[in-house]
Amino acid sequence: MSEVEKVYPAGLATNIQKPIADPGIEPHRVRLTDKSEKAAKGAEQQIAVMFGISIIGAIIAIWGFVAFPIADLADTRNNTLWMGIGMGLSLLGIGFGAVHWAKTLMPDHEVSEARHQARSNDESRAKAIEIIKTADAESGFTRRKLIRRSLYGALAFFPIPALVIFGDLGPQVGDTLKHTIWKKGVRLVRDSAEGGTAIKASEVTIGSVFHVVPENLKDIEDHGEKLNQKAKAAVLLVRVEPSDLKEDPAKASWSYDGIVAYSKICTHVGCPVALYEQQTHHLLCPCHQSTFDLADHCRVIFGPASRPLPQLAIEVDAEGYLVAQGDFTEPVGPSFWDIRQS
After folding, report:
1. Is the four-CA dihedral 113, 116, 119, 124 of positive or negative sign?
2. Domain CATH for 274
3. Does residue 113 share a domain with residue 62?
4. What's the domain count of the chain?
5. Which of 94, 127, 181, 335 has the most C-beta neighbours closer than 10 Å?
6. 3-state SS, residue 338
7. Quick one: DSSP state of residue 272?
8. Average pLDDT of the segment spanning 268-274
9. Tell me, what DSSP letter sits at residue 58?
10. Structure confidence by residue, pLDDT tens digits, 187-227
11. How many CB atoms lie within 10 A of CB 286?
12. Is residue 180 part of a domain?
C-alpha cells in the first residue's frame, strides 16, 4: 500500500497526485564580475557614481530650499520642484547603488538549509558572528574602500535636506509669534478681500461674531509679508452679556461692555478657531476639536490645546470705534515650540 493510500480511503486516493519531488536549487550562473576583476572594478566605480549622485541630489534639495524661500506662488513652485528633484535623486542614488552592488558584487549563490529549533546559546551566537564576518568578507564591504566611503557620504548627506526643512518648521518665537502688528489705538476692521471697514461698538450685537484684523495691515505692500502678519494678527470679536463673563480682575479692563477679542489661532497646531456656540460661549477648533470657554478667558475645556487663546485688550476711541490697547501680552499660535515669555 502506498503512502497516499494509507492516509486516504481507497476511493479518494486514486484522484490524488503524488507529492512533487524537490527540484533542488538551480545551477549557479557565473556573472561577468565573478570572472573578471576588471569588470568588478568597473561595477565598483558605477556604484560609487550612484552614491555620488545621491550626494549631489541632497545638495540640490538644500539649494532649492535656500534659493527659493516661500513667499508667493512662484517661489512655492520652484521650492517644491527643486527640493523634490534633489531628494528624489538622493534617495534613488542610494537605492540604485545598493541594488547594483548586490547584483554585481555580492555573492549570489542560492542556499537552503533544514529548519531547526531556534535557540539562543553560545554556539549559535558564535555562528552568527561567523556569518556576519563571512558576509562582510564576501560582500567586500571592508575590502572595497571606494564603495564603502561613497556609501558613507551618501548616507551622511541624504538626511540633511530633512534636517534643514524640519529645523525651519520651528521658528524662533521671539522673532515671529511673540509680536504682531497690533498697536495701541489701531482699529479693529472686518477681514475681507476688498479691505475691511472699522467696527463701532454699537454695531456688535450680543451673540454676533466678527473676524477682524488690524487696520494697519493695509499699509504693508509686500504680499507675502502681508499674509504672514495677517495670519498672526487674526482675531475673533464676540459680544456676550457682561454678566456672563468670568473676568480676572487684572484683565477686567481688556473687554468693553461684554465685547471680547481673542486670537483666532489655535494654541494646538495653529488652525483657525472659527466656530462659536452662542448658548455655551464655547469656541471650537475644527481641526482637532480643541474647545475654549470664551466666557472664562478662553480656558481650554476639551481637546489637545495646552493653553488658552491669547486675549487682545480692546477699548473704544473718541468716535466709538473699537481699537486695540496694544499688542498681545503673550505669543499667539501653537505652544509646541517651548514658548518662553520674558
Report:
1. negative
2. 2.102.10.10
3. yes
4. 2
5. 94
6. coil
7. B
8. 89
9. H
10. 999 987 666 799 999 999 999 999 999 999 888 888 888 88
11. 12
12. no
